[in-house]
């Protein structure tokens, strides 16, 4: 998977950078989790300050066009981004929620 940054714009009003990128890949389409991790490493940004907005894959092509936003702090990200974008674009929170759902609750353990 090779990521090329196509645009990088500073948005001072919202305290963030807006990055456009293209991805060329071989094999299966890369997951959001893989793109999020590689983009964070490539841009030298903490994962909790980066959110992926969109990923558009064209039928039959091994290219993806996408955009991401990098905030100055995690608090700014949570204040500005809508809830569904946070759930879709943030990998760390999904893993925490999945772990919480897999763990048995105290009520279920007491009932049995």
TrEMBL record:
Residues 91-112 are annotated as: Disordered. Keywords: Ribonucleoprotein, Ribosomal protein. One of its GO terms (molecular function) is structural constituent of ribosome. GO terms for cellular component: ribonucleoprotein complex; ribosome. It comes from the Archaea. The keyword Acetylation does not apply. InterPro entries: Nucleotide-bd_a/b_plait_sf (IPR012677), Ribosomal_eS24 (IPR001976), Ribosomal_uL23/eL15/eS24_sf (IPR012678). Pfam families: Ribosomal_S24e. One of its GO terms (biological process) is translation. The keyword Repeat does not apply. Belongs to the eukaryotic ribosomal protein eS24 family. This is Small ribosomal subunit protein eS24. The gene is rps24e.
């Amino acid at each position: 998977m090779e990521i090329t940054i196509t645009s990088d714009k500073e948005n001072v009003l919202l305290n963030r950078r807006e990055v456009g990128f293209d991805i060329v890949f071989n094999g299966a389409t890369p997951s959001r989790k893989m793109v999020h991790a590689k983009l964070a490493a490539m841009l030298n940004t903490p994962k909790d300050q980066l959110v992926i907005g969109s990923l558009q894959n064209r039928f039959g092509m091994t290219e993806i066009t996408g955009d991401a936003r990098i905030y100055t702090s995690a608090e700014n990200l949570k204040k500005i981004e809508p809830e569904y974008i946070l759930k879709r674009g943030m990998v760390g929170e999904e893993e925490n929620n999945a772990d919480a759902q897999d763990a048995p609750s105290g009520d279920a353990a007491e009932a049995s």
